[in-house]
Amino acid sequence: MSGASLRGKALVADVDAAGAGPSFWWLGQQGFIVRAAGTVMYMDAYLADNAARREPPLLVPADVTNAHIVFGTHDHSDHVDRFAWPGIAAASPDALFVVPDLLLPGLSDELAIPAGRFIGMDDGKSVSVRGVNVTGVASAHEFLDRDGPSGRYPYLGYVVETAGFTVYHAGDTVKYEGLETKLMRWKFDLVFLPINGRDAARYSRNCIGNMTYQEAADLAGALRPGLTVPAHWDMFAANSEDPALFADYMRAKYPSLSTCVPEYGRRTAAGA
User: Is 3 inside a domain boundary?
Assistant: First the structure.
């Protein structure tokens, strides 16, 4: 890591000032800013001011003046932030919004963001946008759900490739049969994996789950990325995990692989 933990306009300025090499900044939960080859991507940025948050938002939507692509992995408020997106769209008027295809066109109508600014994705679909190649990968949150009429997936992860740098943002998912096989075609420089897990108590209150920290570590062990970053462990007291357990498990089981427990608003170099 480098530099201080930043918020607001200072954080955006740090993104704009970053050098040529790829870097990322954690916004909390599963939210990241990634800059690579000059393209600035906001992934699952959760900016709504919710009283249940354990960490207040690092940005307000009007701060986000530098977005080229905004990713939402699925239709939960901490991933597709309906509060934030209209403000981001206004502050970054050229930004495009990447979402599961199932969310279109309703999301455009609801948020009053022109439909032409949205790119719908599904499992296995690839598009080239703003100088990067994006591929959708189905996620299982906590089940591998599909829409009955269309067969499309409501929960996705995204593989983003640009200028020799490849990142996988898993969204919310558990491991399922075939996930590793789908992902093995890439050599990842960086992966963001949820580690908050799942249990009966959470499921009974409709809090659907993700990989445990052990499962996330084993996925990283199979993919062998340049850097693995655990996420989705911090924001809500009733749906959290200790990232030190993930880091310790990685060191014990996969000592040759690099892991970084992120800090809010701090620039981290991401290789390549």
Answer: no
